[in-house]
Every structure is written in C-alpha cells, then in structure tokens.
C-alpha cells in the first residue's frame, strides 16, 4: 500500500494558547456537593472541520477531540503524565525491558456490536499505526520486533531493544485502536468508516453536517461502568473566536477547546466561565521560527544565530501572546520539567552582536541598509507574531517579505514541498521528547511528511543522543541525555525558539469533570464530564 502524506484541515499545534502562569480558574461547587449527574448535551465550539474521523492516520488537533470520545488506546495518561488502564486493564514488563504483556478489558464491544479482541490491537499497530501515523511510526517503528495475540484478551509487544517511553505512546492520541473487521484489506485513508466511525469509546457517532457540526451520542454499553454521564456531545464549527466566546456566554456552547490569547483575558471576566490549564498538561509547546537550511544563507549557523540575537522574545510574548507565554530557551518546553533545561546558550536581544555575525557571514549592508532579502510563510494564527518579527529583523538589515497563506498551504510549502525561506510552527511537546522533539530534529525525520523536520537540520550527534535516551530506562540518565540534546541544538540554532507555554481551555461551570480525564483531556474528556442540571443514572440497557 502506498504511503500518503496527511495534511489535516487544522491542527492543535497551530492554535495560540496561554501559558501556565497566565491561566486562572473560577471553580464553582456543584449544588449537590459534586456527585456526577446523568443527561444533558455538551456543545463544543471547535475552530475547524476535523476531516476524516480516523485517529490512527493523523495527529490533527481538530480530529482527536472528536475521535477521542469514540475510540480508546491501551492506556490513558493521568495529569502527572503516567499511564493508566484503558483498553488494557493491566500490563507486565520483562526484566530486560523488551517484552510488554497487556491484559485487555473483557467484554468490550465495538459500537456495531462486534467483540473487541487482541487481534484488533495487533492489526491496528502493525497495519495502520506503524505504517501511517507519523509519530507512532517514527517512535515505534525502529524498535518494534513483533506483536503477538496469544489469546483474545492478551497482547504481547516484543522490542528489539528497551524503549523507555513505550507506555506513554499508547494512548488514543498515538495508539488509537481501530476495528480490524472494518479496516482489514482496505486503504485506511479512504475507508468509509472514516465518515461514520465505529469505536469502543464512551460515545458513538450519530450524524455529521460537513462544515457545521458533528453529533455523538452516549454509548450505553461502554465498558467503564457508570460512564459516560452526558447523553450527547455536539461539535459545532465556529471559526471566528469572538463568535465562540459569544456562544459560550449565551449558553449555546459549553466548551471552547482552543481560545486564542486575546480571547482568554475576556473569558476570564465572564461569570460562570472556568479558564484553566488543568487537564492540558500533555500539551506543552514551543513556538519557533524555522529557517530552510537547504537554502543560503540559512545553512550558515552565524546567520541563524544572528536572527536569534535580533529577536525580542520578551516583547513577542507580551504583545503577540498577550503575556500568556514565556520566552523560550530551546526545543523542549518547560511543561516537561523532567526533560527541560535552561542551561543552554542564551540569545538575549543584542542588535550589535547580530550585525557582527551577519558581517562575518558576508552579509554586508547595502546602500539602503539591507543585508538580506528573504520571505516568510505563515498562516493567520501567527500573523501578530509575524508582524513583530518583520520589524525586529529589519533593525539588523534583514528585509522580510510576508507570505500569508491558509493553513493547508503553509503546511504544504514547509513540510511537503520544502519551498520556503522562513517558516514557523507551534509544535506540541508530547509527554516524552522521543515522540516530540526527536521527530523535528533528527536526520531520519527529514521526510516530506507534515510536522516533522521541515527545516532539514541534520546533526548525527543529536541523532545518537536521541537513540541513547530512548533506550535508557533510568529517567535521571535520560534527562541528562536530553540536556545534552538541548545544548547542541541551541548552539546550532536550526530553529529560532520564540515562546513557550501550554494553554488553557474555557468552559461553562454548568459542566464538571473536564480535568478528571487526564493530561490530554481535550482529546478524551467526555467520559468524565457531567451536567449539573442532570439527573439520576439511566436504566441499564438490555
């Protein structure tokens, strides 16, 4: 089967969001003391159409909030980013760290009534995830030896070498399990089930009106007894942020998934609205400028370092991101504290140093003061920061031609065609750098696939450190290796790291339980959410 590139219509990585220090909460006590109630409909304001509803072929941040309510992984991550049971009720790891044995939940059924078995897990990983899911392929492909399904309720992963973050990779985000009976022998990109998905999750697909809404309804036979609480979840596509806020304020929506920074300050002032980062611990991100290292003069480290010195990160964080992000120091977010280090080469704003480096690189100013004319591709979500960067780079003689495009056009130019001078990205750091930062900086990830190493950076020393870190099972030793990675990358400046944060979501305090779903709650929240206006549990299905 021919491999295809996936370019989703939108992506969580591209939503502007607020940093930990900026988010506020206004919790409200439930009238009954906090006991979940049943019934009600949650309307979610989503900024774009999710595209095909197959979570195993895309990392799109607009697909997974929908599919995460219908599908499961083997595990889910709690708010400390630790794996908890999902389709796997328990697991054992061999002494040599190369064999993982998962015991599956019993009695689980797909939404069409067919039984879920270990064959579904084996098929999903071997035939779809490791072949077509960019993150899972890059992380698991090199280390996976085999997957066995010795009985319907047992799955055994055998690895070629220890792989420390395996469990963190196996949630719905990177390890969604598909029904083998619907996907076997088909193209997973065109399978009709992508339009009417069949999962094992707490909600079932009901209907879709393209460009308008998707409606999910309660799965009365969900294997986690007592869940879910809501009768239905409706994803309404509301592209304009002010309209999303108005819908929340009017009670026409109960949740805004990705409020942009200017909206967050207004949302905080609304009565009955909770603005919080709880439940989003798995979405830390570093927003960065990406030079195309295949093109001169960006193949010269002095030019990249000059740009780093010319950028005013503090001003960008305060202005373009409304003070809701922090200046970034490197490729790994502070939101992953065990792996992050600030002990790297610093690039405080220093125009004279920037000019001196450009001089050394042979980029002398012309009569008009311009040393270099270049172009910058971006989409609307980065427009405010792009304006500031244009102004700041002009101060050292770099003239920037702004090329605003839509999201898909920007992705195609940067990641598929490599047709750009300067680009940008807002890549999320997943719970482990091995399936986050690694895919952006290694030589082997220079492939024409969205959201990998579009800039073309290659340093074999960095690749080797990533390999060592993935195989090291001692977290302190892994952290040391990632510190070395960050120091090398920041010295090379293959990307100019701008700002760093996580970002809140906002919801009506009529609803409870959002943060109870774990560290990636926006991707699988609805099983724990309940409506304070609800009632007693429904009668069990026959």
* Unreliable residue stretches: 1-33
Tell me the number of helical segments per DSSP (H or I, 4 or more residues long): 15
Number of domains: 3
- Radius of gyration (Å): 23 Å
CATH fold topology of the largest domain: Dipeptide-binding Protein, domain 3
Give the tally of β-strands: 21
Mean pLDDT: 90
Architecture (CATH level 2) name of the largest domain: Roll
| Broad shape | globular
Distance between the termini: 42 Å
Determine the strand fraction and express it as a percent band: 15-25%
What does this structure look like?
- The chain has 542 residues and is an alpha+beta fold.
- It has three domains: 1-68 and 201-280 and 503-542, D-Maltodextrin-Binding Protein, domain 2; 71-189, Dipeptide-binding Protein, Domain 1 (Dipeptide-binding Protein, domain 1, Alpha-Beta Complex); 285-501, Dipeptide-binding Protein, Domain 3 (Dipeptide-binding Protein, domain 3), CATH 3.10.105.
- The protein has 15 helices and 21 strands.
- The strands form six sheets. The protein has a seven-stranded mixed sheet with strand order 8-9-10-1-11-19-12, with helices on one face.
- Helix 8 (301-310) runs antiparallel to helix 10 (351-360) and helix 14 (460-471) runs antiparallel to helix 15 (475-492).
- The longest helix is centred in the C-terminal third of the chain and has 18 residues, at 475-492.
- It starts with 40 loop residues before the first strand and ends in an 11-residue tail after the last strand.
- The model is unreliable at 1-33 (pLDDT under 50).
